Amino acid sequence: MSVNDVHVFRPFKLVALLCVFLALVLDLVALLSPSWVTADHFSLSLWESCSQSEARTSEEGEWSCYPTLTTDWQIATLVLLGAGAVATLVAFLVALVSLCKGKRRQQYRTVGVFLFTAGLSPPHMFPLTHTL
């Protein structure tokens, strides 16, 4: 009597690691993006606000920029995005170690907790009560 061993490849750990990496990349893009809000003569990001003076000729007007981390809501947005990025980075590192080490089910709970925390921290979860 012979027993046939069947090995099934389940890419769940690899897909989970790819999703955490994608979340980390998108969080960094959100932090470093120079244009969150754009209009014809206005641009606002987390780091600076720029406006273009009206052009009197056919040339484009001069852009003037100033830092925007002077209001409370922008500092809170920066802190929340940073906390989410740190939690996502820790989750990515734990998932990477867990994938390389092998059978560590306890670490997946840790990854889940960090990703849940990171999901609660983005500023889109909280209504902004400011006017531009």
TrEMBL record:
Q: Where is the chain membrane-spanning?
A: 73-99
Provide the protein's localization.
Answer: Cell junction; Membrane
Q: What keyword terms does UniProt attach to this protein?
A: Cell junction, Membrane, Transmembrane, Transmembrane helix
Keyword Hydrolase set for record? no
**Gene Ontology process terms (BP):** cell-cell adhesion
| Pfam families to which the protein is assigned, alphabetical | L_HMGIC_fpl (PF10242)
- Name the predominant localization: other
Its membrane topology is listed as: Multi-pass membrane protein
Its cellular-component GO annotations read:
cell-cell junction; membrane
Identify its protein family: Belongs to the TMEM47 family.
Q: What is this protein called?
A: Transmembrane protein 47-like
Organism encoding this protein = Gouania willdenowi
Q: By which gene is this protein encoded? A: LOC114476237
